Amino acid sequence: MAAETTTATSEVGRKKVRVGKVVSNKADKTIVVSIERQVAHPIYKRYYKQTKKVMAHDENNECNIGDTVRVVESRPLSARKRWALVEIIERAK
Predict the structure, then answer these.
(1) What does pTM read for this prediction?
(2) Which distant-in-sequence residues (6+ apart) come within 8 Å of 91 by Cβ?
């Protein structure tokens, strides 16, 4: 599995790390991150995109909509929040 890491997906220890775009920051200390990945069709072998939205903890409310961020898997912080912000890779213009 270590040989198959990409820039968007990797594992540090046992926690999953993902890169995505912030689509909402309306809640206090919470961001919604859209994670996009490419998957090969099992029969036709054509790649298509799949998107997953996750809620992540943003302690200092520093993210804005459109930012590219790195999030890591964490303990449950609320009913739907299971990820935490690691860093802001690129700010939105």
Answers:
(1) 0.82
(2) 64, 67
Contact (CB, 8 A) for 8 and 68: no
Domain of 22 in residue numbering reads as: 2-90
- Token pair of 11, please? 């594992």
Please name every residue paired with 90 in a beta bridge, in sequence order, or none if there are none.
Answer: 68
Whole-number CA gyration radius for the chain: 14
Give the pLDDT confidence of 25-50 residue by residue, as tens digits. 999 999 999 999 999 999 999 999 99
* Residues 6 or more apart whose Cβ sits within 8 Å of residue 58: 25, 29, 30, 31, 85
Q: Say how many domains are in the chain.
A: 1
Q: How far apart are CA 60 and CA 53, in angstroms?
A: 21
Which residue in the block uniquely carries the two structure tokens 């961001």? 31
